[in-house]
Amino acid sequence: MLGYAYSPRLLAHDPPPTTVDVAGRPFPLGTTNVSQAVLTAQAHELVTRSALRGVLVVLPLTPAPEDALLAVHTPAYLERLREASAGGPWDGEYAPVTPATWDAARLTVGGVLAAVDAVLDGRLERALVHARPPGHHAEPDRAIASTYLNNLAIGAEHARARGARRVAIVDWDVHVGNGAERIFWDRADVLAVSLHQRDWYPAHAGDLRATGGPRAEGCTVNVPLPPATTDAGYLLAFDELVAPIVRAFAPDLVLVAAGQDPSAFDPTGRMLVSAAGFRALAQRVALLAGEVAGGRLVVSTEGGYSPVYNPFCLLGVLEGLAGTDGGVPDPWAGDPTVRAAQGPADDRVRDAVAAVRRAQRRWFT
Fold it and tell me: Less Cβ crowding at N or C end of the chain, within 10 Å?
């Protein structure tokens, strides 16, 4: 059984365009926010029209309690975010706040906690949280790039509090999973693996040589991939790096930050992953969780900003997790860009994989 957590109440968080400072005044980047609410609504609509609607178990969402948030975020930051949503000052990096942000962020975390509970209790084997806002950039004391609360980091701490000895986070968003890197830097009970576009955003995290603190060497795993990495390139990195490292770590629960922004048409990345590629990644991680964690798997969406392709990529993830076809063909399957996404892994990707193996000697010696 596959759980699915979503609420239309999350759509109330629909921030204005992000801005940069030019000549002392804010200058808008585009006419809408890259993370506009309609993208979430479109993807959910496609899911409900697909054949998957008959196999999904809907998980109710309730706001996360503040003590769960405090397991990851500082009290001062949470107060700042709450006050900003009420109209107070704000200092997030590319993360504008609206009156709905605080409630939507807590509700999204609540969905992750409900999914973790359902999986740990054995009521479901795996679940996907259709998150809005996403969370993987959020650090303990600041919001970054459309993320405010680190949904999966809070989920990992919740699982640990419930008795999970070790938790693995696998992040395939096109951007670095900097939040988990910072939060769990010196923690040997949480493995944080990030596959991301090399030399992309944010610049302060994701380096190949960043492998964890002195008490947790190898528990931070960064996999910087070259631009235009295809489906086959991502699957190679998963098979050669993610799977053996997660097996060796032997977690009790696997969490996935499932960004669809590595897609072939995403405006925020330069990768070449197709809807079929996302399906294959989800199949791989479901099999891996079955092998090492008794099947216990919680997936939460992250970035994904193509209005024409993101819904089909999310559907691909759900198809992979459910092990069944949604009955909706990829309307872009014949496009030259999607055909390019189905090309082989090239030498640049193989070199990147080899570099990670050298940097992560704990797992490969």
Answer: C
